[in-house]
Design brief:
Layout: E1 8-12, H1 19-25, E2 30-35, H2 37-51, E3 56-61, H3 67-76, E4 84-89, H4 91-103, E5 108-112, E6 124-128, E7 134-138, E8 144-148, H5 149-152, H6 157-168, H7 170-184, H8 190-205, H9 207-210, H10 215-235, H11 244-255, H12 263-278, H13 282-292, H14 305-314, H15 324-328, H16 332-343
Parallel strand pairs: 1-8, 2-3, 2-4, 4-5, 5-8
Antiparallel strand pairs: 6-7
Zinc ion binds near residues 246 and 263.
Length: about 350
């Protein structure tokens, strides 16, 4: 085993104020801030006010996670003028910043403005390839992670509920990983699986507090995301945090582009199905999603039972990573029954 972890993690109310000291702590003096137009409008002036006196600053606004477009953007950035990259925003700016920082071998600082999935502290980047297919790259974990709970508390509830979906889904991603260890002899560090389990437990055990979106609830959600990110760093892949429920979500993206829900919403619905297939307490996962206000049925992610069943059949073909779906090899009729029984309706 060999892995890297963030040097500095700050999770707290107003923790963005600590950015200057954190940047100095990791040896940065000139900073490229990658964000999007909305977040720049909301937070740009504040961050600029904090950093402008002591740091050389540049901003890049991104609106896509299309890899070829980002590769072009990468060539246009005058990298000699920057010694680190901040990703400021929701999932996309953080992913794009992580990718650009990795490509240019600069330290990356993650400043998420919502917790809609587990990427803000992980080494994984989710992009779209040339043909629009999802692409997951293992890069470098952030050098520093700064989660300002005041900022996150202003994120749309739907994004945060999606984060709950992505994190509770570690119950089934770990079940898939353990299945692969047992039946395929796959080598996965036990500590990475424990971290992913702990991420899910934080959300499951505290769902009342988390779903009331109090400062403590958001802190718990952020801590869960941090542990999930660490799990992937330790494993050297997304394995502990991405199993059959993620394959289901990827299949939905592929079969019904632009139609499904948010990543964490789809993964949450997928986790209910996967838990059922693993013989786990799938109703409990459904209950967690319901309390967070996340979709608990395929209708909530814009699909009919038949469409979701098709995605479930397609899912194991997308990746040669052994999961319960590979073991069972569901046919269309079985998939229909499973989807109808678990996520056919909200009940
Ligand atoms: Zn995910």
């Amino acid at each position: 085993m060999e892995f890297r972890l963030p040097w500095i993690v700050a999770i707290g109310s107003g923790s963005v104020e600590g950015l200057p000291e954190i940047l100095r702590g990791i040896g940065c003096s000139s900073v490229l801030i990658v964000t999007d137009a909305t977040i720049r409008g909301l937070l740009g002036p504040r961050v600029e006010g904090l950093l402008a006196g002591s740091f050389k600053l540049g901003f890049v606004e991104v609106s896509t996670n299309h890899q070829p477009t980002l590769d072009k953007l990468h060539v246009e950035i005058p990298w000699a003028g920057y010694d680190c990259v901040i990703g400021l925003g929701g999932g996309r700016p953080v992913d794009v910043a992580k990718y650009l920082a990795h490509k240019s071998s600069k330290p990356f600082v993650s400043v998420p403005t919502s917790i809609s999935h587990d990427g803000f502290a992980s080494p994984i980047v989710a992009l779209k390839d040339d043909s629009g297919n999802p692409l997951s790259l293992f890069t470098t974990p952030p050098r520093a992670v700064v989660v300002d709970l005041q900022v996150v508390s202003k994120a749309p509830r739907r994004l945060l509920a999606s984060g709950v979906g992505d994190l509770v889904a570690k119950v089934t991603s770990v079940a898939d990983a353990r299945l692969a260890v047992r039946e395929r002899g796959e080598e996965i560090p036990e500590s990475s699986l424990r971290l992913a389990e702990a991420a899910a437990s934080i959300v499951v055990d505290n769902i009342g507090e988390v779903s009331s979106w109090t400062e403590r609830g958001l802190r718990l959600l952020a801590e869960a995301g941090l542990l999930a990110g660490m799990a992937m760093s330790v494993a050297g892949s997304s394995r502990p945090c991405s199993g059959s429920e993620h394959l289901f979500s990827h299949a939905v993206d592929k079969l019904y582009p632009g139609r499904g829900g948010l990543h964490g919403e789809q993964v949450g619905v997928g986790a209910v199905i996967s838990a059922y297939l693993h013989g786990l307490d799938w109703r409990r996962i459904k209950g967690i999603l319901r309390r967070a206000g996340a979709p608990t049925a395929v209708s909530g992610i814009g699909l009919s039972v038949e469409e979701a069943a098709r995605a479930l059949v397609e899912a194991p073909r997308l990746r040669d990573r052994y999961t319960i779906l590979h073991k069972l090899g569901l046919g269309e009729r079985e998939a229909l029954e499973v989807v109808a029984a678990t996520v056919g309706s909200e009940e």
